Known about the structure:
This protein is an alpha/beta fold and 260 residues long. The protein contains ten helices and eleven strands.
Amino acid sequence: xxxxEFAVSGLSGADLGIEVxxxxxxxxxxxxxxxxxxxxxxxxxxxxxDPEGLEVLPAVALSAWxxxxxxxHLPESLTSHPDRISFVPEFVQExxxxxxxxxxxxxxxxxxxxVPPHALETxxxxxxxxxxxxxxxxxxxxxxxxxxxxxxxxxYPMVWGVFAxxxxxxxxxxxxxxxxxxxxxxxxxxxxxxxxxxxESMRHFFEEDIRLRFDDLALACITxxxxxxxxxxxxxxxxxxxxxxxxxxxxDDSGQELHL
Length: 260
C-alpha cells in the first residue's frame, strides 16, 4: 500500500541497515514468525487477534485521520440499508471497522459475506473495497471512507499498522533506527508526495493526514479497537497489547542488518 511505502520512504539515501521486502499482510506475520523477516508492518487487528510470540516496537506506527484506500461502497445510499456486504477475508481489520461504523453511526447491522478477491468486483450489492487504486475509482452510488468514519466515531486516528518483531528480539538500537527512518519520512513527506504525481487531495493526505508515531492517540485507538474485537466476538478476552520492553543498550550491535 502507498501509505506503507511512505512510512519507509525515509530509508532512501540513508544507511540504516534496513532492507525492505513487499509482502501481503498475512504473509508478513507468517514470514516474521518463520524468521525470514526481522520486523514486519502488520495490521493492528491481526496482531490483537494473534499476538503469540510477537511484540510491537514502541515509538513508530502507521495511523491516519482518514484513509482513501479503504471504503464501503454502497450502490445506492446510506438510506438503502444493505442486508449484506461482501469483503475479502484477508481484510479482517477493515471488515471489523465497517461493522462498527455501520452499527454505531448508521444503525445498520448487515451480514458480512467473505468472497475470494476475483469475485468481489462482480459481487452484487454493497462491498468493502480496499487497494491502491481505490482513490481513483469512480463508482456509482456512495463510497464511505473507513478512516474518516472511524475518526468521527472514535475521535482517534485509526492505527492501520504497527511494527512487530519476534518476542524478546527488540532492542534500543532497532528502535533508534526505526525512529530515525520515521523522522526522515516525515521530514521529506512533501518531496515524496511530489515524486508520485498525486492529485491535490492525495497530496494533502500524505502531507497532512498520515501519522507515523506511536503515541497516546495511537494507544487510545488500539484500546478502542481491542474493545470492539471483544464485543464483536473476534476474541474471547481482552489481552494486554504486546509492547516490547526495551532494555538499555549494553553493547554496540548497530551494524546488524534488519529485514523489513
